Amino acid sequence: MAELTELLRQHPAFSAIVQNGKPYRKLDFTAGNADLLTRDLSETRDFSDYVFQELLAGNAYNGIGGYGENRVIYRHRKHFTADSEKPRSIHLGVDIWTDAGTPLYAPLDATVHSFAFNNHYGDYGPTIILAHELDGIPFFTLYGHLSLNSLEGLFEGKTIKAGEHLAAIGPYPENGDWPPHIHFQIIRNMGDYKGDFPGVCHAADRDYYLDLCPDPALILRISD
Q1: pLDDT of residue 40
Q2: Which of 100, 118, 143, 211 is geometrically suited to a Cys-Cys bond with 123, CB 3.0 to 4.6 A?
Q3: Residue of 59, 187, 56 lying closest to 132 (CA atoms)
Q4: By the 8 A CB rule, do 17 and 220 touch?
Q5: pLDDT in tens, 62-85
Q6: Mean pLDDT across the chain, nearest whole number?
Q7: Which DSSP letter does residue 54 get?
Q8: Alpha-helix residue ranges (DSSP H) falling in 12-114
Q9: What is the rounded average pLDDT of the residues 118-133?
Q10: Any idea what the CATH number is for the domain that residue 132 is in?
């Protein structure tokens, strides 16, 4: 991972994925946020109100954060707790929480690797995965919780230029039934996955997956 990490770190600039002009506020969905230990956020409307009205001060900010977090919010979602022996709670990407319909832009030149509608409660919903290459090093970026119409007109191998409109943030329930946000993840090796890739892992697998999925801040470069 060191080679890719250093390559991304040294890259002069990436296009902003979200360009709505709002300032950023870091959100905490770990047990360190005492609110989460007393609230039932299993209803998406309640969860969305909590994020946008309380944490983001009436939607005055974009929310950001999550890489490597051990999140307690997944306890309400069977998608992450179905395996009772290895429930998943370590978040492998960065989330940007902002309005449904917000346009999203490609951070660098790419081709479409794959895409899918992961249509399960708590899943990614509409998802796009892009393939990139910098100085001969291949890697991938994943965009989850999109609008369904973001998948229209896509095909594997389609060329996407840096700064080109890519997709839009989806509303619930079509986005996997989450408050509107984009899950952005860097992946060194997709293996056999197409249109999907783990975005949350079990604590015992943390080191393996964080090595496979470098910090998205290397591309986002957002100060909160």
Answers
A1: 83
A2: 118
A3: 187
A4: yes
A5: 999 999 999 887 665 554 444 556
A6: 92
A7: I
A8: 44-49, 78-81
A9: 95
A10: 2.70.70.10
What are the tens digits of pLDDT across the range 142-173? 999 999 999 999 999 999 999 999 999 999 99
Report field, pTM of the whole predicted structure over 0.85: yes
CB proximity list for 108: less than 8 A, separation 6 or greater: 11, 14, 15, 132, 134, 162, 219
- Residue 18 DSSP one-character state: B
Buried b vs exposed e over 102-118: b needs ≥16 C-beta within 10 Å?
bebbbbbbbebbbbbbb
CB-neighbour burial class of residue 4 (10 A; exposed 0-12, middle 13-18, buried 19+): middle
| pLDDT of 36 strictly over 50 | yes
Percent of the chain with pLDDT over 70: 93
Domain that holds residue 84: 2-220
Token match 């949350």: residue?
Answer: 200
Residue 164 sits at φ, ψ, to 5 deg, of -75, 145
Give the separation between CA 179 and CA 100, rounded to whole angstroms: 9
Sort residue 129 into left (φ over 0), alpha (ψ -120 to 50) or beta.
beta
Total domains in the fold of the chain: 1
Burial class of 208 by CB neighbour count within 10 A (0 to 12, 13 to 18, 19+):
exposed
pLDDT at 25 over 50: yes
- Token duo for residue 7: 């390559």
